[in-house]
Write a structure and sequence with these properties.
- The protein is of the alpha+beta class.
- The chain folds into three domains: 4-95, OB fold (Dihydrolipoamide Acetyltransferase, E2P), CATH 2.40.50; 123-273 and 390-493, Bira Bifunctional Protein, Domain 2 (BirA Bifunctional Protein, domain 2); 279-371, no CATH class.
- Helices cover 40% and strands 23% of the residues.
- It has 15 helices and 16 strands.
- It has helices at 48-61, 109-114, 116-119, 123-145, 184-194, 230-251, 253-258, 264-267, 278-285, 296-327, 332-368, 377-385, 439-448, 457-464, 477-485; strands spanning 14-27, 30-36, 41-47, 67-76, 84-95, 149-151, 156-157, 169-172, 175-179, 196-204, 217-226, 274-277, 391-397, 414-422, 427-434, 470-476.
- It has an eight-stranded mixed sheet. It has a five-stranded mixed barrel with strand order 1-2-3-5-4. The chain has a three-stranded antiparallel sheet with strand order 7-9-8, with no helix packed on it.
- Helix 4 packs across helix 15 and helix 11 packs across helix 12.
- The chain is globular.
- The two termini are 32 Å apart.
- The model has no long low-confidence stretch (mean pLDDT 96).
- Bound molecules: 4-amino-1,4-dioxobutan-2-aminium adenosine-5'-monophosphate and magnesium ion.
- 4-amino-1,4-dioxobutan-2-aminium adenosine-5'-monophosphate (4AD) is lined by residues 161-162, 182, 184, 205, 207, 214-215, 218, 220, 222, 428-432, 472-474, 476, 478-479.
């Protein structure tokens, strides 16, 4: 048996493939099947004259997603799905499928999410999962290559690492326990044992709203490094992200093509990343500080003007095609062609209108931003749109950051925390920073954040026995996958997403 991923080595040869009928059409003695075997997609051509009447009839009525084995000759053909065609000489059905719910026509997202166990087979989802897999591999390559030790942090925990508002509480032998929001605190303990470590595991946050960037269960990569300060932490973040993006660009060309990903912004992920303090970032958002000679409001007006031009062009295209259809000079095929173009263009108008609303939202949040506040999605978008590249924002007001962040001695009131914001509206993908080492300050922060001191005694021990400066960060895997793949929504980045209101499938 040959796999589609290996077809390049079998051009001109006879092979046997096992897989599924993803889709097909027939015309005069020929069936054209999009055949998939998990490792890829290719076209299978079943010719009545080659396979005979009985097999041809089987192929013609074979339902979508039936499994089958085919034998045939491999032809290289750039125009075909996956770049190869199999000229089938024989086929055997393994299992005929019932009526498959996901057809080539458009389906609503809720329907697709309800059928996630099947939706995973479709070509876009297939591509996303492959990119996710490549990213995971690249993450291990990066850290293992630098001598980091991977550690597994517990999932049941008594510690609220990231605030108490979004904890999932469970019953742990009659005691309350939480599902871990972050492996960081355990990572800090292990960094004192191993020097350089990273955790890579599932984390849980009860996010009681539906957003395009939040899941209730997501995977986080959290390195923790003894003897690292904030600057070294930021150096590592940028090297790490650049290396993962580079790995995907160099080895997932086919997947990115399937996803129609414009890789322009990914290619701009080069070192060094832009770094700016929170206060400077706020000045940029508020339009008080220019970037490359323009303020945020100039940039936002340009965005608005671009959308108006785009809208006019689409409206004109629609008007011209509608006039042609009305003229009575077109053949039936031409009318259908133009009508379906018009329908598509009208969809584009809706999309443009949505983007116009988004720009209005960015403008209003930039106008109303209050110095000292945490950034919302719109603020992150405005800031990164000014650069078109990833931006690291550091030295945040302590009030908006977690209890464990170190206060900057030279910049009182500010925490040595850093967020990495991805361009194209993706926003925060990494949060991290230098950890507080002063045990008294940590204790008062624990009290201030109304956390139970008893649950943190072990953590405070780390400051008593060989206390050293240390730093780390957390990268949300799904947010990274969404950005690299250019997805509108985080729900497609994980095989079986868990989010507010969804537990099945
Ligand atoms: O900024 P956060 O909350 O930082 C921490 O958890 C630290 N303990 C990390 C550390 O320093 N070791 O979360 C880190 C990242 C975010 O930048 C984001 O990418 C992701 O985790 N994230 C989420 N991803 C999906 N759904 C959610 N609900 C997420 N919440 C955070
Ligand atoms: Mg954060």
């Amino acid at each position: 048996m040959t796999r589609i991923q290996d077809l390049a080595a079998h051009v001109g040869q006879a092979v046997e493939l096992k897989g599924w009928n993803a889709q097909k059409r027939d015309s005069k003695g020929l069936v054209f099947m999009t055949f998939r075997d998990g490792t890829g997609f290719c076209q299978a051509v079943i010719n009545l004259e080659v396979v005979g009447e009985a097999s041809f009839e089987v192929a013609k009525r074979l339902p979508q997603e039936s499994s089958l084995a085919i034998k045939g000759t491999v032809i290289c053909d750039e125009k075909q799905v996956g770049g190869y065609e199999i000229q089938v000489t024989a086929l055997t059905v393994i299992a005929e499928a019932e009526d498959y719910p996901i057809t080539p026509k458009e389906h609503g997202v809720d329907f697709l999410m309800d059928n996630r166990h099947l939706w995973l087979r479709s070509r876009r989802q297939w591509a996303i999962m492959r990119v996710r897999n490549r990213i995971i591999f690249a993450i291990h390559e990066f850290f293992q290559g630098k001598g980091f030790v991977q550690m597994d942090a517990p999932i049941f925990t008594g510690n609220a690492c990231e605030g108490t508002t979004n904890l999932f509480e469970t019953d742990y032998y009659g005691e309350p326990a939480y599902l871990s929001q972050s492996g960081q605190l355990y990572g800090e303990a292990m960094a004192m044992a191993q020097g350089l470590i990273y955790t890579f595991g599932p984390t849980f946050r009860a996010e009681k709203s539906k957003t395009r960037r939040h899941l209730s269960e997501f995977w986080m990569i959290e390195p923790e490094m003894a003897f690292y300060d904030l600057k070294m932490d930021m150096d590592l973040i940028e090297q790490f992200v650049q290396s993962v993006v580079g790995a995907v660009l160099s080895s997932c060309a086919e997947e990115l093509k399937v996803l129609e990903r414009d890789t322009k912004f990914l290619e701009k992920v080069q070192l060094p990343f832009i770094r700016m303090k929170y206060e400077d970032a706020v000045s940029v958002i508020l339009g008080e500080k220019e970037v490359n000679g323009r303020t945020s409001f100039v940039m936002l007006d340009e965005e608005k003007a671009k959308l108006v031009d785009e809208q006019k062009a689409v409206e004109q295209d629609i008007a011209e095609r509608e006039a042609k259809i009305k003229s009575g000079e077109l053949k039936k095929g031409e009318i259908n062609f133009n009508q379906s173009k018009v329908d598509k263009l009208k969809g584009q108008l809706t999309d443009i209108a949505e983007r116009q609303q988004a720009v209005e939202q960015w403008i209003s949040s930039a106008k109303n931003f209050k110095r000292g506040d945490d950034f919302g999605g719109s603020d992150e978008t405005v800031l990164t749109k000014m650069f078109g590249q990833p931006v690291m924002v550091y030295n945040w007001p302590q009030a908006v950051k977690a209890f464990y962040m170190k206060e900057d001695e030279e910049d009182k009131g500010y925490a040595k925390g850093v967020d990495l914001l991805a361009p194209e509206g993706y926003g925060e993908v990494v949060g991290g920073g230098e950890r507080e080492t002063d045990i008294e300050r940590l204790k008062s922060k624990i009290i201030e954040h109304e956390l139970p001191m008893s649950a943190f005694e072990w953590y405070l021990d780390l400051r008593k026995f060989g206390n050293v400066p240390h730093s780390g960060f957390g990268l949300g895997l799904e947010r990274l996958v969404a950005w690299i793949c250019g997805l509108q929504h985080i729900r497609e980045t994980i095989p079986f997403p868990r989010s507010y209101g969804r537990l099945l499938p």
